[in-house]
Here is the input.
Amino acid sequence: MGENLQILAHAPVARETPALLFEMMRSFTALARTLNLSQAVEELGSTRQTVKRHIAQLEEAMGGKLFEVEQRRYVLSALGERSLESAQTVLDQAKIWYDGAFQHVGGMLRFAFESDTGSLYYQQQLPISCVWQGESDLLRAAIKAWSLSEGMLESHHMSDVRPYLLAYRENSEGWICTEVGEESFYSNWYGWAQARSSVGRNLGSFQGGQAFASLSDRPFRDAATTGGVRVDQVMVQTAAEGEGAPTAIIFDRLMMGVRMPDNSPAVISVVDRAYDVKILGVSDDVLTQLPPRAKVDFNL
Here is the structure.
């Protein structure tokens, strides 16, 4: 009983949320990103005193130091490192929510981006049951192979679906493509020459800016962190090989966390055309307008 009371004594104390919490979090993430007070102040258009006060308020509320100062340089503490990603995610989601492009539909994340130049990107998270209930033999085979392989990419159980997948690993530059299957949706759409040239490249900067990049990366991080499975339906406007005009294509994407032979984590992506539209606000007409090459020919 005494031990339980001692543990509870260190639990966070419920308190009223400060009106300036959003600005406090912006100060934290800017300083964490730059590790330089002057740069953070300039980026925020704020003052040194304000940023320092915000950090002090957050540290008091969270019960620990977010930064250490070593030889006049800011360094993230262990608490700061644990807090950074969630703080940035909250800020990114708030920005997109304010723009009306971030929602939850049936408890699943949906967000969208449309530029003035006509580019578009829609992403709707789907329940895993959509794989079993859907028409894609490829996605069903892929998730079965992943389960039988126990998440090991080089398992013989993955051999039938290996030509249809893309593999990614994370480094300091982001998510790097390490493998492109010759029979994959990506290869069919862009052509094999362009598809294989993607090996070694990162996903690139998302057109909608940092906030949209953060959310579009989320499926990769979810699969890598949990070693599990995530399903999304994506609609994007992009040009196929040899075609100048961008075309809207819609597809279902299965992402799975895997392990390499050295036991390091990676993510594989298996994509097939969508057979029905599940993204709120997107017309079924997009299916009838899909080009013939926006598909995968899969047979076991």
Remarks:
- The chain has a mean pLDDT of 87.
